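Subject — a protein and its fold

Tokens — whole-number codes for backbone shape
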Amino acid sequence: MRVTIADDSVLFREGLARLLEGAGFEVIGRAGNGTQLLDLVDADPPDIAITDIRMPPTNTTEGLQTAATIRERHPSVAVLLLSQYVETTHALRLLERGADRIGYLLKDRVSDVHDFVETVRRVASGGSAIDPEVVAQLVVRRRHRDLVGDLTEREREVLKLMAEGRSNSAIGDALSLSPKTVEGHVHSIFQKLQLEPADEDHRRVLAVLTYLRA
């Protein structure tokens, strides 16, 4: 898989490039700001662009804005945003146009190399990945709502993992549940949240986060 990386920290950018190259990715471009990233993607679209949200010149939302532009110009290019802090508003803005080929992670997740590499592969292959901390805050924000209040603690745990982009099998492994039990929880969650269940994992993420945003 071909990757383009953008981060204003040279140390982080080069470290991330070496990590990905060591995992078998081909890093075809490195950028220090959103403009450079967009130029690189326009010239040679990668399978996935990985970018920090906050970059020069204002260090606010340049990365997010660049990601939105990439999705408009190059729908087949996956985008994974990295953030130093949990910013739920940015995550939701990113997902407004669909959850396929989209990821949002805290930079701390990079330290878990295996999980991070698997996340990059999943997003680049058309899936999605939302940081557990972001999902947790979204769920907390909605706990006062009647529908979410109807969920059991176990269903909330399953919901968080669904929103991270986990498959039923992965949810079962994480919570030590049988496939049949996970399917039952997923069915119950969609019923209680009044959402139509979908077969594709990233569509489930979009449905859940769309509800949480309401």
